[in-house]
Amino acid sequence: MFKVEGTIENQLMALGIILPQASEPAARYANYIYSNGLLFISGKGPSASTKGKLGQQFSTEDGYQFARQAGLEVLAVLKQAVGRLDNVLQVVKIQGFVNADRAFEEHHKVLNGISDLMLDVFGEKGVHARSVMGANSLRDNLPIIVDTIFEVRMPVNDSL
Amino acid sequence: MFKVEGTIENQLMALGIILPQASEPAARYANYIYSNGLLFISGKGPSASTKGKLGQQFSTEDGYQFARQAGLEVLAVLKQAVGRLDNVLQVVKIQGFVNADRAFEEHHKVLNGISDLMLDVFGEKGVHARSVMGANSLRDNLPIIVDTIFEVRMPVNDSL
Amino acid sequence: MFKVEGTIENQLMALGIILPQASEPAARYANYIYSNGLLFISGKGPSASTKGKLGQQFSTEDGYQFARQAGLEVLAVLKQAVGRLDNVLQVVKIQGFVNADRAFEEHHKVLNGISDLMLDVFGEKGVHARSVMGANSLRDNLPIIVDTIFEVRMPVNDSL
Questions:
Q1: Can you give the pTM of this predicted structure?
Q2: Is residue C90 part of a domain?
Q3: Which of B29, B43, B145 sits opposite C115 (nearest CB)?
């Protein structure tokens, strides 16, 4: 795994990644909360127009792309929270909820979409712990939701 | 969002909320563990006699009420852990497991039942990160289980 | 609950437990990440050749054994992370994803398999918060995956 040189913002440019605006929470909660060195980010999926289940409407390869898209949403929230992504000290934990058929078995390959993104963007600091399960249904019939925890340096004050 | 004045216990009274006794864990675990500034509370649902799935036996509106009831159970455990609810510094994270039909899409509206409760009780400190998924089944066929993390000041010693 | 005397390694021997080698992550992530006093361990299941759902191919009693096996995998990762298991200060949180039929209701009894193991091995330090849900499917059709957090003393440096 390579060590990312220079700023993470430069790394994003080198990767050709343009972050979206942080999406609004789907209901009455915040995009993130900072507590005790850890940033807890709310569940994020790919764009709301993507609807369907893995193993039914979507293939594992589709799911990989959706997980990557969800990861870009997470990065947008991260930037909203910490200002510069260089304030991210470690990707700590990713949980994936995959909206999947009962016979689906490739959840881990789907979640690689966000794992690879984090490794590309953060290098060594992008290595993380992970778990994934197959949901029976998700809000708005999203194909995947990711729930993430980061170790960060908060620039000024807490999340609010 | 209003700032809660006075004690949280007064706020509970103003809201007409009487907390239940903290329920016993359903099996061989503790209601909560305190570690490094964070209180990890075990999964809690509404009363054990409530059984069924969202999108089948229950509507989204039913689910909202069940999520609120689960939130009251969480508050009871919080009080058991920290003595006075004023020792709660921040609601950090809520994960919701909604026992739902495979076609259900309103998990976020269900989870608002506990989110609104936390905002009503704690004001700004009640803002939290959140995620929710649709379970295929839950213990005792409960309609919802919530898994929560709080930043707290522990009054005397650790959780045991 | 008894207080474990002597080293945890002696306790393992007294229990007749021989830990497996830590299994490799199923995809592009690490077995664990240490951050701010907490060790986040990636999702672990029983051996990869065990495939099927609770309430279909497997009974609750089978599930209890699978949860215990998953717990042994977690202990192996713990040892990999902290060297001596005496560096574990507290089992903090266990989340269980049980691959279960939609009519299954005994997830908590299944998860006791890992809870009992943690209590046997760590005594008071093994008491933990817990939650469990029924997944519609899991990677490789594993019957259970556990996602765990521990409070630990890291012997030398961080997880990488």
A1: 0.94
A2: yes
A3: B29
